[in-house]
Amino acid sequence: MGKVAIVTDSVASIPESILEALDIQWVPYYIHWGKEVMRDLTTIQREAFYKWLPTIKELPTTASPGPGDYLEIYKRLANEGVQEIVSIHITSKGSGAYQAAQAAQSMLKEELPDLIVEVIDTLNVSMCHGWMVIEAARAAVAGKSLSDIVNLVKSMIPISHMILTADTLKYLYMGGRIGGARHLVGSLLNIKPLIGMDEGVIVPLGTARSRHRAYQMMVEKVEAVVGVAGRIKIAYVHAAALGEALKIKALVEERLTVVESIIAELSPALGVHSGPGTAGLCYYPLTEG
């Protein structure tokens, strides 16, 4: 572990190999179904969850970790000798994780006054959130200061972009996370909606008449942001749809300069809202050579 510890949530959907390699600490979300309570990526894993989800009539609900969950991990890190923590969270406009982490931060001020905890609202989800965590952890391993890491993450917030598509938006709608894309719910079955995120809320980005056309539109939208000569880091994200993610990857890398790519499957707590079959990308442009 570097001088600064990095903490996040399971919904960042960062592949386990990266979590382990960079010693990223994470707290699982809760998934409620009737009286059953599951912990994201702890008591329920991706494969089993995505097989189960389409078979049930009532959608599970999700809940962010509470202040006590963050307090527990912050205290554990302090007991291990950590003096500085950067805690990086999904958009506060769609989840209570940021507020819960802030509450835990306040609780620690009297108990552990020497422990510094910086809590950041990414205003993003999925691997847009995940990229910020990864780059923060890399900076920590490289020995960067707390302020340098915080500034790095904050610089990524406005330039990180998500584009997703799915066969249906019913999961987002039923879970109350549809945001500004509500009007797309009633679209014809053969229309593939594209959604993104702006200022922390879901927004519509257009529609296509096939998945292939939706994927082409994704590439066009990325290219419009970064330019033909632009360089990006990108995560191809999916929910039980690896083949679709690979199709997007092939189209992107025909047209754009990808410096680093990751394939990541959404965690079950995000999959509740996206549903199986979702595929898309999360990227940010590199501003330096």
What does this structure look like?
It is a single chain. The protein is an alpha/beta fold. It folds into two domains: 4-29 and 64-158, Rossmann fold (3-Layer(aba) Sandwich); 160-285, 2-Layer Sandwich (Hypothetical Protein Tm841, Chain: A,domain 3). The chain has ten helices and 13 strands. The strands form three sheets. The protein has a six-stranded mixed beta sheet, sandwiched between helices. The chain has a four-stranded parallel beta sheet with strand order 2-1-6-7, sandwiched between helices. Strands 4-3-5 form a three-stranded antiparallel beta sheet, covered by helices on one side. The radius of gyration is 19 Å and the shape is globular.
Q: Oligomeric form of this entry? A: single chain
If you average the pLDDT, what whole number results? 91
CATH class of the largest domain: Alpha Beta
Helical residues, percent: 25-40%
Q: Which sequence of SSEs, written as H and E, runs from N to C?
A: EHEEEHEHEHEHHEHEEHEHEHE
Write down the overall geometry: globular
Tell me briefly what this model is.
With 289 residues, this protein is of the alpha/beta class. The protein folds into 2 domains: 4-29 and 64-158, Dihydroxyacetone kinase, domain 1 (Rossmann fold, 3-Layer(aba) Sandwich); 160-285, Hypothetical Protein Tm841, Chain: A,domain 3, CATH 3.30.1180.
